[in-house]
Amino acid sequence: xxxxxxKYTFLVFHRDYEHFLEQLREAGVLHVAEKATGIADNxxxxxxxxxxxxxxxxxxxAEQYLPEGSAPVNTGNAxxxxxxxxxxxxxxxxxxxxxxxxxxxxxxxxxRMQVWGNFSxxxxxxxxxxxxxxxxxxxxxxxxxxxxxxxxNAFVVAEDGGLIYFVTINKPAVQEQIDAEQVQLNxxxxxxxxxxxxxxxxxxxxxxxxxxxxxxxxxxxxxxAERQNNQSIDWKRVALSTTQLADDTLCLLExxxxxxxxxxLDKMLDQEHIFYTSEDPTEEDNTPVKLRNNWFTRMxxxxxGMYGWPVYGEFDPTPILAPFFLLFFAxxxxxxxxxxxxxxxxxxxxxxxxxIEMFEGLGPLITTxxxxxxxxxxxxxxxxxxxxxxxxxxxxxxxxxxIKGDVAGFDIQMVMALCIGVFHICxxxxxxxxxxxKRFGFKQNISTWGWLLLILGAxxxxxxxxxxxxxxxxxxxxxxxxxxVSALGIYIFNTPGRNPLINIGAGxxxxxxxxxxxLGDVLSYIRLYALGLAGGMLGAAxxxxxxxxxxxxxxxxxxxxxxAILIVGHLLNLCMSALGxxxxxxxxxxxxxxxxSGYEGKGHLYKPFAK
Length: 611
Fold this sequence. Notes:
Layout: E1 5-13, H1 17-27, E2 31-32, H2 43-63, H3 82-113, H4 121-129, E3 133-140, H5 148-151, E4 154-160, E5 163-170, E6 181-183, H6 190-240, E7 243-245, E8 250-258, H7 262-271, E9 275-279, H8 295-298, H9 301-307, H10 318-333, H11 336-350, H12 363-380, E10 382-383, E11 386-387, H13 396-399, E12 406-407, E13 410-411, H14 412-440, H15 446-466, H16 472-492, H17 500-524, H18 526-550, H19 556-597
Antiparallel strand pairs: 1-8, 1-9, 2-8, 3-5, 3-6, 4-5, 7-8, 10-11, 12-13
């Protein structure tokens, strides 16, 4: 539902304007109508908006380093230099990352030097000082020549992974002809490199502690800086949306207030002796929308926002989108066992036990989708890929309520998906006809009512004829009547006042679009059946694969393999099914339903000027 709004226009003397804005912000109920020009061109405002983005990004980064169970210090004060504080955190993070890169390099080098043992660097330098040249080599075992030991004074140091590591000790005058890869030793041996790595780990731990201390000390300051900066942005937006009149002595401001906040606003304006007018907004006023839904529908408002918010005067699609999206999601998942897992995941997400950023605030929605999947999955007779309808351990009383069988040779679940699609599209067309008539008048929507009469009339007549309510003769005359009245609306009176020949041509073009579009839209709903079937078959395949591994004479190893296949397989199937069950119902809502309901989604949300 969309809350009714009132449009306000204020005329204030320039000396009283700042005090008026303070009182207006204190009331916190007016959405200021912004000008189309001025705000985007104001460099100072754009810089402040960018600063808010940087502050928010820094706060998000800092929150990752807050120790579990710790809360940031809230002094209620913004930092003295916000820009400097914003730049400080990335610097510390970069220093920690650099240390981590050093550690990785040292650990790789320590692993490389492990085969050469814990040699003494001082003794090697002493040999070199005496005029000996030490060369280090590695080669495959089958290519090592034993003659090198006598000819070039070679000593095998280690043998590892089919490779031989050796060193030669000669005078510089000896020209070695050895077919092996020559390597360079690090100035530190493996033991020393291990000590270096431990030292770097200590430095990384210190940086981590510094980051945690920084997050605790400064996150609250940044949140206060963000709040103050946003208030300043709001103030500038209002100032830039003000029209100066009478040589800048009068200030004109427009805005919108929800009907439930007008009493408080009117009282404040009367007390301050502000001149104002209040009226119902028109179609051209670009009025913001404030949604008013119950707890169930409110969970699905985020989906409406993904497409676009309704225009004021348009209908809020969320109350229709919510139950249908829940049904579509459950049909696409189609497995009661997966519903249980979604319920658990949703509850843990809502309670912050599972803290994944992309699911922030979606715990109740995920839980609700899980409950729907559990219920629908039971009626479809699938539990973790097991067909409950054929399972011997399921009571016949439960099997009797499961949706199984066929209609005229077609799977009943496929027929059900198509019937849901027909109902969904018809509902969309009814809503379009009612809402467009309310917004633009009946004369501008005669064609819409003509199509609605034709489709619903034909469907109802067909149902009555198949159930023998209408005789063949009655069916014929009803269809003629419905067709005739519909044709007048579609082809003759679709645009009153226009040339009838042009109306006929427009009606024919509309007929082509409807004939091809409606059929394709209805067929799109088969995906509700196909996705549920695919997920169930894949789950059953993992069950069969697990049973094959288990075998007829299971042991500990086969049981472990069986459990591993079931866990990995069903988690993979759950993730893929959940992705499909989210995307495809969203498409049915955004394309098939919104197109036939005439929903545009070009509105903007109500955001009051408030502290």
